[in-house]
Amino acid sequence: MTKVVAKICQVGGGKHVAFAGLLAATLLLSACGFHLKGMGDAATATYQSIKIVQNPGVRSDVAQALNQQLQAMGIKVVSNLADAELVLNLQATQMNTSITARDGKGDVSGELLKMIQPFNAQVVATEESVIQARAVAYRDRSVNAAQAQASSRELQSIQRQMASEVALQVLDRLNRAYALMHPAKQQEKKATDS
């Protein structure tokens, strides 16, 4: 690889040094097995069914995103606990807003939104704890007091995106924790997917 970079530098002179550096960095990252978080085998579900328990205060958009994502993964979301392999307990969703900027008049012009979704999961048959954690999503947004209606629609859209991100985090962490507890099921899942 270094020979290729050196050859590019010799042929192109000084103006191709930046390109050669970029090429070298790309080759190094691809050669070292670089993977994005959440893209590995552990992110796949090894369970077949789940019951979601929504405690008071859980945002409906978070619960809806979880249901949609589970169904897209081929996991049955059941209403009867006896039919579930896992139970996912969602505690009240927390939504915090911090002021990050003000305009010349002192009005709020920037906010940092933080959505926190505490959750835990257990194996139904054994009541064994799988995970207890919190999924967190952040968004920064500009606020324009003159366009309050558009700003309100933007806030709703941002909150839906955050709910979807939080739901993905919950499922990714649940899937990884359950796969670590049951490595045989993970191997079985790999074999059936191949």
Chain-wise SSE layout:
Layout: H1 2-12, H2 17-31, E1 49-54, H3 60-72, E2 76-77, E3 86-90, E4 94-102, E5 108-123, E6 129-142, H4 148-181, H5 183-193
Parallel strand pairs: 1-2, 1-3
Antiparallel strand pairs: 3-5, 4-5, 5-6
Helix pairs in contact: 1-2, 3-4, 4-5
Short description:
It is built from five helices and six strands; from the N terminus they run ααβαβββββαα. It is α/β, with parallel strands linked by helices.
Account of the 3D structure:
One of its GO terms (molecular function) is lipopolysaccharide binding. This is LPS-assembly lipoprotein LptE. Keywords: Cell outer membrane, Lipoprotein, Membrane, Palmitate, Signal. Pfam families: LptE. This protein has 194 residues and is an alpha/beta fold. The chain folds into 2 domains: 2-31, no CATH class; 44-193, Double Stranded RNA Binding Domain, CATH 3.30.160.150. The protein contains 5 helices and 6 strands. It has helices at residues 2-12, 17-31, 60-72, 148-181, 183-193; strands at residues 49-54, 76-77, 86-90, 94-102, 108-123, 129-142. Helix 1 runs antiparallel to helix 2, helix 3 (60-72) packs across helix 4 and helix 4 crosses helix 5 (183-193). It is globular and about 60 Å long. 18% of the residues are buried. Mean pLDDT is 83; it is low at 30-42.
